[in-house]
Design brief:
Pfam families: MOSC. By secondary structure, this protein is of the alpha+beta class. The chain has helices at 68-78, 124-130, 135-142, 175-182, 201-215; strands at 2-11, 17-18, 26-27, 32-33, 38-41, 44-45, 63-67, 91-94, 106-109, 112-119, 147-153, 155-157, 162-167.
Length: 218
């Protein structure tokens, strides 16, 4: 059994990042670690806020995880501290390869059961939050996107909990492959087909249609 650790649980709370001149004019990307146990519902962590529901949150993006190992790479690259929550993540993990996580694999953390559903596509608000020029381009080139999670069984989680990968589908479609197929290597999108049923519900028909178009004769 693959086993990692939950280093921190982060939520945005009510102190949202202002975005003057933007619509919406606030963002929940600025998440901070919280102490103790945190309740997890079907749509996310207690106290967390997702402002732009078109791109964030929902049943297949209820929780976002980012690996300490990937954060360490960015900290060295940029010469700055990147504490838990700085990537807009809810869960900071250690000991798991999130880029190599398979869509549909299930994690037991505390009393909660999660399912890996998707990669995270960086947005302009992420670049503004860090104030790093070309961050979206650099983040895309790096390809360590972190993983979105669906909540299969509600419960609670807390820093220090074990993260146990309790099952893993055999199709081999990873978070990293999905990220490449939706960003820099879009001709690879048909490779996602075996894992379509694990994507967030709001994305399945859209991705399936794109695959169909790619597979159609020229």
């Amino acid at each position: 059994m693959i086993r990692g650790r939950l280093d921190a649980v982060c939520v945005s709370g009510s102190d949202l990042l202002p975005l003057p001149g933007r619509r919406p004019n606030r963002s929940g990307i600025d998440k901070r670690p919280v102490a103790g146990r945190v309740a997890v519902s079907e749509l996310g962590l207690d106290g967390d806020v997702q402002v732009n529901r078109k791109y964030h949150g929902g049943e297949g993006q209820a929780v976002y995880a980012y690996a300490q190992e990937d954060a360490d790479w960015w900290a060295a690259e940029l010469g700055r501290e990147l504490p838990p929550g700085r990537f807009g993540e809810n869960l900071r993990t250690t000991g798991l390869d999130l880029t190599g996580a398979v869509l549909g694999e299930r994690w037991r953390i505390g009393t909660t059961l999660f399912e890996v559903t998707a990669c995270r596509i960086p947005c302009a608000n992420f670049e503004r939050f860090w104030d790093v020029p070309q961050l979206v381009k650099r983040f895309t080139a790096r390809g360590a996107s972190g993983a979105y999670l669906r909540v299969l069984e509600t419960g609670d989680v807390g820093a220090g909990d074990a993260v146990e990968v309790v099952s893993r589908p055999g199709h081999g479609v990873t978070v990293g492959l999905l990220f490449r197929a939706t960003t820099t290597q879009r001709r690879r999108l048909p490779e996602i087909t075996p894992a379509l049923q694990h994507l967030p519900l709001k994305d399945r028909s859209k991705v399936a249609a794109r695959i169909e178009r790619l597979a159609a004769p020229a």
